[in-house]
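Dig into my protein:

:::
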Amino acid sequence: MRLLEVEDVSKRFGGLSAVAGFSLDVEEGEIEGLIGPNGAGKTTVFNLVTGITRPDAGSIRLKGKDLVGVPPFRIAREGIARTFQNIRLFRSMTVLQNVKAAVDYEKTYEVAGAAFRSARFRQEEDRIDEFARGILQRLDLLDHADHPAGSLPYGSQRRVEIARALALEPSLLLLDEPAAGMNPNEVSTLAGLIRFIKAEFGLTVLLIEHQMGLVMNLCERIVVMDFGQVIAHGLPSEVRSDPKVLEAYLGRGAKVSRC
């Protein structure tokens, strides 16, 4: 079943065509990779899907529902969560507070209830706290719940960012270069984490990544972009052997490492 359908989408910024006639189908329950050189338009695609940027043309649908023109917070409620190239945590807040911030929109009590700490307020706060701690436990972060997010090692901060995205209870998780800045051991751990959250949370995952070993061994299908357009798509084995991909992205005669 197709979860996300992006059809013939285009976006220009002034005289620059960032995305041109781009199409993408993401099947429910799969891990799909979106690769290409810097400036190919990958993050623009994520911004279009999440409503940060509105396309000039084309359609974007989640479970058949049109997302074009829908505000980002409503798209999040529809089931799309994302992380960013650069970690965007509230560094001085605790790990637990970072995750709880993602579920605050579901609060059902009134402002007065919060001001006077009504029974309804306390019940809702307890529910959010328990929910957030449950996510931290499943991602092996519970021991860090009360630590400032900015005090954690880089790889753990990435994990907290993913935990915060999971707090939105998405059906589709967009990961924008999750392995950026990681050493080989951290990349291997990340691969295991992505497989775990796919299975544990029943997620579909679309990731942008430059670590080819991670992409080729983790993703079930891969889409390759260049200058805002799709130049190749298919199984990892097909993309790995595509001459255009080898020449433009991996280099002639390059070998893909395993992680």
Residues 119-138 form the longest helix (20 residues). The two ends are 29 Å apart (CA to CA). The chain has a mean pLDDT of 89. Strands lie at 2-13, 16-27, 31-35, 57-62, 65-66, 80-82, 172-176, 204-208, 221-226, 229-234.
